[in-house]
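Side project, low priority. Logging it here so it doesn't get lost.
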Amino acid sequence: MMNAPHPTQNPAPTAQRPWLVTLQRLGPWLSPVLSRLPVQPPSIVLARLLTERWWPQVPLPVRAELCGRRVDVVVRDLGLRLRLCAEGRGLRTAMAQEPMAVCIQADARAFLDLLEGREDPDTLFFERRLVMEGDTAFALLLKNTLDAVGPVTWQPWRTPQPPSSMA
């Protein structure tokens, strides 16, 4: 008898995401290499990407609440640690001496599922595929913002439209 996927899991067909299968196969090989990278280069890449594709969708009042707090992102299966901080114009690499407000940890697939809207933060959190540690109020604000904004648009030909307000 075959095991059916858990009803809250939304596995993506590999035909639609063959690069994810490749990433998962390379993960054990990449992890020792990526874990030795300095934090800054991958943090710069993620900050620029999120500034361009996610930040414009965040309502202005929420942006103000997110600014000035360091968020660490740990991609467990790839051995990556990134440090980000929001400021008025977008995200930037946070310095090590800035106090961390929240640390978010998950495997690459969970982060991709979250960013693409295949999974919501609550599902990932309750299935323990996503772990958030630190300032609970700030983590909840961040989670609610991710929920409200929805998936990140990655297509270069689509410009994200900022929402008028957040419910």
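Brief comment: The first helix runs from residue 18 to 34.
Revisit when time allows.
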